[in-house]
């Protein structure tokens, strides 16, 4: 359903993503782990064209995009079908929770405003924040802000949801509620690509764990294999350090 091939990105002549190949099945939950500076965020950002890949193709349910040459229309089409959850939530500070969710639907998906607002209300109930609809981000806890960030992505009904360390910026007390919401999203068989350091969560939720280092996929497999019987010395090293 989703096929990435030869995805490559350089920053200042340094390869950060080195010909990544990755197929994602419908409903599959993939967790990406690896040392910092290894290209995990860049991979997700390239899939959403927040960074422009230098080479590679992205195939999303029948649409094939030559990533380096993608037109504006193609980039918009990919953005309409992928949804990004940021580490720092990236909410509009001057918009309420409800407006933050509505805005993505109106601008990215060109939905009529009334329809977008109705969908935002539905999402606010799903994420347990109906009573905070009119609150601005500054009046919400970190956990609530990230739940809005996830709600905004959920509202897009995207084929692929991308999560870039969604709990890393949170005080420990808010991590649980955000992981709970992600579990709920996963239970709905949403296709997810998640970068996280929450290894216990990864073990529980992932259909597949990918270990990346130096812009490459070093090793991948079911959580039991990656966590309990890693084949590559680099994977073992990394897990020893974080474990
Ligand atoms: P990770 O998410 O695994 O920590 P990143 O994808 O953020 O790694 O970064 C991979 C490498 O690319 C790092 O060396 C980082 O410094 C570099 N990098 C990322 N974004 C940029 C950028 N916009 N400009 C220059 N270098 C960047
Ligand atoms: Mg990162």
UniProtKB/TrEMBL annotation:
Coiled coil region boundaries: none
Domain of life: Bacteria
Domain ABC transporter: from-to ranges: 2-239
Top-level class of the enzyme under EC nomenclature: hydrolase
Keyword RNA-binding appears in the UniProt entry: no
EC number: 3.6.3.-
Signal peptide from the UniProt entry: none
Keywords per UniProt: ATP-binding, Hydrolase, Nucleotide-binding, Transport
UniProt key word 4Fe-4S: no
CDD domains, per database record: ABC_HisP_GlnQ
InterPro entries the UniProt entry points to: AAA+_ATPase, ABC_ATPase_HisP-typ, ABC_transporter-like_ATP-bd, ABC_transporter-like_CS, MetN_ABC_transporter-like, P-loop_NTPase
Molecular-function GO term, any one: ATP hydrolysis activity
Similarity comment text for this entry: Belongs to the ABC transporter superfamily.
Name of the featured protein: Amino acid ABC transporter ATP-binding protein (PAAT family)
Lineage: Bacteria, Pseudomonadati, Pseudomonadota, Alphaproteobacteria, Rhodobacterales
Gene: yxeO
């Amino acid at each position: 359903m989703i096929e990435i091939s030869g995805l490559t990105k350089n920053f200042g002549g340094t390869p950060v993503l080195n010909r990544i190949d990755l197929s994602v099945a419908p409903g599959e939950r993939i967790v990406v782990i690896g040392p910092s500076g290894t290209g995990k965020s860049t991979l997700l950002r390239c899939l959403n064209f927040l960074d422009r890949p230098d080479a590679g193709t992205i195939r999303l349910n029948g649409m094939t995009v030559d990533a380096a040459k993608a037109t504006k229309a193609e980039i918009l089409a990919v953005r309409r079908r992928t949804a990004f959850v940021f580490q720092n939530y990236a909410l509009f500070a001057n918009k309420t929770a409800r407006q933050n969710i509505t805005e993505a639907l109106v601008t990215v998906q060109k939905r009529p405003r009334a329809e977008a607002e109705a969908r935002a209300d539905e999402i606010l109930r799903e994420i347990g924040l109906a009573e905070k609809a009119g609150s601005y981000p500054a009046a919400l806890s970190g956990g609530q802000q990230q739940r809005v960030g996830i709600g905004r992505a959920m509202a897009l009904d995207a084929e692929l949801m991308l999560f870039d360390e969604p709990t890393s910026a949170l005080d420990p007390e808010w991590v649980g509620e955000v992981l709970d919401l992600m579990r709920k999203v996963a239970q709905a068989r949403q296709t997810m690509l998640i970068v996280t350091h929450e290894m216990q969560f990864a073990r529980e939720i992932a259909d597949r764990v990918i270990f990346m280092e130096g812009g490459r996929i070093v090793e991948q497999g079911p959580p039991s294999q990656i966590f309990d019987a890693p084949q590559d010395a680099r994977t073992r090293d990394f897990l020893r350090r974080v474990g």
